[in-house]
Amino acid sequence: MLDMDFNHKNPSERISYLIDSAMEGDQEPKRTYLGGSRLGVECARALQYEFFGTPKDKPFTGRTLRTFAIGHALEDLAADWIRRGGFNLLTSKADGRQFGFSTANGLIKGHIDGVILDGPNEYGPYPRLWECKTANGKKWREMEKHKIQKANHTYYIQMQLYMAYMSLDENPALFTAINKDTSELYFEDVPFDPSAAQDASDRGVRIIQACLAGELLPREASDSSWFLCKWCDWGERCWASE
User: How confident is the model at residue 241 (pLDDT cuts 50, 70, 90)?
Assistant: First the structure.
């Protein structure tokens, strides 16, 4: 007979540990390309580490991976809500794969959340790129107050590249943000900025060229105490390398 211990009054810590241990053993696979969603990241060297699949200073914790999973689930819900609002939104091809693009011999790729083919006339014309993000209350309010270009430049550049490479540049993208604390929704029209898209594309090519040439690009900061360095997945490795 199995010897089972039923004396745990609060199983939360133990069960969470078991879940997180399993999830931590299943980290995201390494990419073999530079993601278009990342080209707005401020530090080019960080993008080089990402391109090479350099191990992070610390792997994602189970809790972080659960947070990512919740974000993906909420984005799926948002797509359903958008459709219920009368929009014809496609989020995948007939075979289930995401819509996306590839350039620079496959070394730069991007995958979009969806494309709105039709909908209420007041929100046309169509088609329109659809991009969805989730955020805590503080970050969500920053988006609502300052608009996405200022509140999160990385997201803004991501949409500019996607509009350019997916030939969805004639009409503004519809950006959607879900407040994870309150379930509030924020929508913003993001017009195409050809200059921003071209600059980001050129930057991506320069980063790839440096990677292929074995050139480590300069850090964005002159001091490891800079806040982006503190939050960087490769901050310790970067500052220990010289």
Answer: low
Give the residue carrying structure tokens 């991501």.
158
All structural domains of the chain, each given as residue ranges with its CATH number in brackets, are: 31-217 (3.90.320.10)
Query: What burial class does residue 89 get, using C-beta atoms within 10 Å of its C-beta: 0-12 exposed, 13-18 middle, 19+ buried?
Result: buried
Please count the residues of the chain.
Answer: 242
Q: What are phi and psi of 116, to 5 degrees?
A: -95, 115
Q: Is the pLDDT of residue 68 over 50?
A: yes
Q: For residue 62, give the nearest of 123, 15, 103 by alpha carbon.
A: 15
Q: In what order do the strands lie in the sheet with 34-35?
A: 34-35, 108-111, 100-103
CA distance 36 to 25: 27
pTM more than 0.70: yes
Whole-angstrom distance, CA of residue 225 vs CA of residue 235: 10
Q: Where are the beta strands (DSSP E) in 36-184?
A: 88-90, 100-103, 108-111, 114-118, 128-135, 173-179
Q: Does residue 168 carry a pLDDT above 70?
A: yes
Q: How far is 132 from 147, CA to CA, in rounded Å?
A: 14
Q: Name beta bridge partners: 129.
A: 115
User: What per-residue confidence (pLDDT) applies to 4?
Assistant: 52
